[in-house]
Specification:
Layout lengths: L5 E4 L4 H12 L4 E5 L6 H11 L3 E5 L8 H6 L7 E4 L7 H6 L1 H29 L2 E6 L12 H21 L4 E8 L1 E2 L14 E2 L1 H13 L4 E4 L2 H10 L3 H4 L5
Length: about 240
């Protein structure tokens, strides 16, 4: 790794904090970006104290699409790596009852992330180097009754990352798709998450660092999800419709 700056978008989440720690420990300057950047002061202080990292804070609203171009253009340095950890799960019941709530979930998990990554992709392509990391979800591998709004948004984001990777592969820019299953964060608090299928944020952070270093294309965290989702994707539709998953 070059030790170039790493931008973390949606930096206030537990998973994003773990990603920031992994890259800071590896010697990278860190750019933390989220709505209300004041919330990131404690995280920045921790990274500086623990790893001696250079940290800058940036105001970023994933849903303010018309601000994304200026956001990228005014960063102190174009990052070598940008990790998009933006997302909102909502609830399936809430999305079914209120189409506006469903729209918020879809925009937060697909439209906003795709928009900011488009600006970063263009800038990195012009430079001729860089890595984009999009945190999607195994929920996008197949629509399921229990979370199909969130899953649909993540499916769109996964497809977007795949196309972006294909577009940029000869331009010096690499794209990593991260497909977490359950992760022990505030987003999954209160859910019944099986231990063998539930990763800790630190696992995800280290897995993303490793994927960037080794230029991996698609990673599942934990890896058992690759098998689980292969099974789910291949259940025949007449049977799948009868399952409560």
């Amino acid at each position: 790794m070059s030790g170039g700056p790493v931008l973390i978008l949606g930096a206030a989440s537990g998973m994003a904090r773990a990603v920031a720690r992994s890259f800071a420990e590896a010697g990278h300057p860190i750019q933390l970006a989220a709505r209300n950047k004041a919330r990131l002061e404690d995280d920045a202080a921790d990274l500086r104290t623990r790893y001696g990292a250079e940290v800058t804070l940036h105001e970023f609203d994933a849903l303010a699409l018309d601000s994304h171009g200026d956001f990228v253009a005014t960063l102190p340095a174009l990052p070598e790596v940008a990790v998009c950890a933006v997302g909102a799960m909502g609830t399936q019941d809430g999305s079914e009852a209120d189409p506006l709530a469903a729209t918020h979930v879809m925009r937060s998990n697909f439209e906003g992330p795709a928009s900011v990554l488009a600006h970063l992709a263009n800038a990195m392509e012009t430079r001729g180097s860089g890595t984009l990391v999009g945190i999607s979800s195994v929920a996008g591998d197949r629509g399921r009754a229990t979370n199909y709004v969130y899953g649909a948004a993540k499916a769109g984001f996964t497809a977007y990352l795949s196309g972006l990777r294909n577009r940029l592969t000869k331009k010096g820019v690499h794209v990593v798709t991260v497909l977490p299953g359950f992760v022990n964060t505030a987003m999954t608090e209160g859910l019944d998450t099986p231990g063998p299928l539930t990763a800790e944020p630190e696992e995800v952070g280290k897995a993303i660092l490793n994927a960037v270093e080794k230029k991996k294309n698609i990673i599942y965290t934990r890896s058992i999800w690759r098998v689980v989702m292969a099974v789910i994707r291949n259940i025949p539709e007449p049977i799948f419709k009868k399952l409560s998953i």
